[in-house]
Design the sequence.
């Protein structure tokens, strides 16, 4: 089941097909496909070409590593993300390498890289569910993330599964229609809140 968006203006099909399921199929992702997702992230734009992103990845094929990364998610996310064949953490380096000054767009650039990853995943028939609910301190400790870098988001990556396998409360979220606020609420001109 793929929940297509209902855009008010034309967009590319893979944008309309992108969504974040809670249910994942018990199906491995090929290493070639997985490498291509991170290759897409690699080519994202970034301030001063700093590329302040890093990813920590674990697949179910390496059960110990998968369990370790799963333990960096909050309990509510562990409940459903454990079914995904791949988990990842997105990490941002918060200072420029070139001069040591704070990089105030590092999170934005990590987001661009992950956006590329998500677009590539969608084009390959995969889904990515991003999570803010991670245990940053645990990730820092378990993965020896250096000072000045921070785990920002988690990701569950895989093929869409049957929502019937989910606990009821999560199943309802998976089956709920996709909604977005209209452009007039976030695209402005002249003054704040004057719709474009």
Sequence:
């Amino acid at each position: 089941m793929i929940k297509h968006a209902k855009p008010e203006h034309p967009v590319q099909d893979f944008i309309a097909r992108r969504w974040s399921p809670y249910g994942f199929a018990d199906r491995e992702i090929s290493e070639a496909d997985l490498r291509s997702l991170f290759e897409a992230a690699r080519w994202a734009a970034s301030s001063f070409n700093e590329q302040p992103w890093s990813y920590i990845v674990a697949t179910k094929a390496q059960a110990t590593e998968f369990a370790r990364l799963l333990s960096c998610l909050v309990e509510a996310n562990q409940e459903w993300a454990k079914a995904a064949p791949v988990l990842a953490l997105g990490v941002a380096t918060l200072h420029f390498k070139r001069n040591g000054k704070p990089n105030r767009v590092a999170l934005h650039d990590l987001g661009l890289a992950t956006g590329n990853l998500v677009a590539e995943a969608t084009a390959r028939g995969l889904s990515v569910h991003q999570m803010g609910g991670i245990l940053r301190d645990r990730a820092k400790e378990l993965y020896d993330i250096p000072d000045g870098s921070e785990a920002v988001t988690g990701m569950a990556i895989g093929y869409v599964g049957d929502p019937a396998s989910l606990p009821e409360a999560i199943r309802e979220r998976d089956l709920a229609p996709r909604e977005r606020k209209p452009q007039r609420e976030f695209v402005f001109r002249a003054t704040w809140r004057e719709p474009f």
Summary: The beta strands are 53-59, 86-93, 127-131, 149-158, 188-189, 191-195. Helices lie at 13-17, 31-42, 63-70, 75-81, 106-123, 136-143, 168-175.
